[in-house]
Amino acid sequence: MARRIVITSGKGGVGKTTVTANLGYYLSLMGNRVVLIDIDFGLNNLDVVAGIEGKVLYDIADVLDGRCRLKQALVESDYSKNLFILPSGRLDVNAKITGQNIKLIIDNLSPLFDYVFIDCPAGIDVGFHRAVACADEAVVVVTPNATSLRDADKVISILQSYKLDKVHLVINRARGDLMIGEKMMMPSDIEGLLKTDLIGVLPEEDVVFLSTGYNLPSSESQKAYKILCKNLHKGSKRIYDVTQKYSGFFG
């Protein structure tokens, strides 16, 4: 059965969907069968980040309304044969979507995959709760700034009430130069502040901002994602050091 992991954040704009897409991609390259489910109705863009928007014929609403079978709505990634995406689409279905409906879909997908990632809406409204109720684990994505950390702290407190198997922390858009200059909190300080297991640190890079899909060739982010996926998959504890190239004499 698949590991069911919801990817969430306290606020929007922290890169949650990009993290979801790349986690799925790099885990699929390790030989795992992965499906990504977009339940961020209204502001959905997982299909764009995953590079499959031109291949979408059906979405999760079509499955729930009986217009297609579940397997018909799954879109295979052009980047990996082990990666599939279940997109979301229309705005008018939000009231019809319930946690029980989504759980039924995930129950049907779980025997076919090793990982099910649920791209959760930002915030703590009804969309957040119906996503978390379908998961066994959570990954909270934060950026190293005060507003993101404060909102993440609220989300983590709510996640504790769901008694999930594991809650992980990923720090995105980390700036090693600012951390060395003591203008941005270090990863260990953020982990201590939020009292949550840190499994990955992802650097701020122009290549991520300018790329579409998984176009991260030979970048620092590519290395960081591979380390993050090994930590999630194997339980290892290595954390990518965003400060390394700014340290020492040449740094």
What would you note in describing this structure?
The protein is α/β, with parallel strands linked by helices and 251 residues long. 37% of the residues lie in helices and 18% in strands. The longest helix has 16 residues. 45% of the residues are buried. The model has no long low-confidence stretch (mean pLDDT 90).
Which band does the percent of strand residues land in?
Answer: 15-25%
Number of strands: 8
Mean pLDDT: 90
Shape descriptor: globular
Tally of individual helices: 11
Radius of gyration over C-alpha positions, nearest whole angstrom: 18 Å
How far apart, in Å, are the first and last alpha carbons?
46 Å
Task: Report strand order across the widest sheet.
Answer: 3-4-2-5-1-6-7-8
Pattern of helices and strands = EHEHHHEEHEHEHEHHEHH
Largest pleated sheet:
8 strands, mixed
Low-confidence stretches: none
Fraction in helix: 25-40%
Helix/strand/pairing class, anyone?
Answer: alpha/beta
List the helices and strands and how they pair.
Layout: E1 3-8, H1 16-29, E2 34-38, H2 46-49, H3 60-64, H4 70-73, E3 75-76, E4 83-86, H5 99-109, E5 115-119, H6 126-132, E6 137-142, H7 146-161, E7 166-174, H8 176-180, H9 187-194, E8 197-203, H10 206-210, H11 220-234
Parallel strand pairs: 1-5, 1-6, 2-4, 2-5, 6-7, 7-8
Antiparallel strand pairs: 3-4
Helix pairs in contact: 1-11
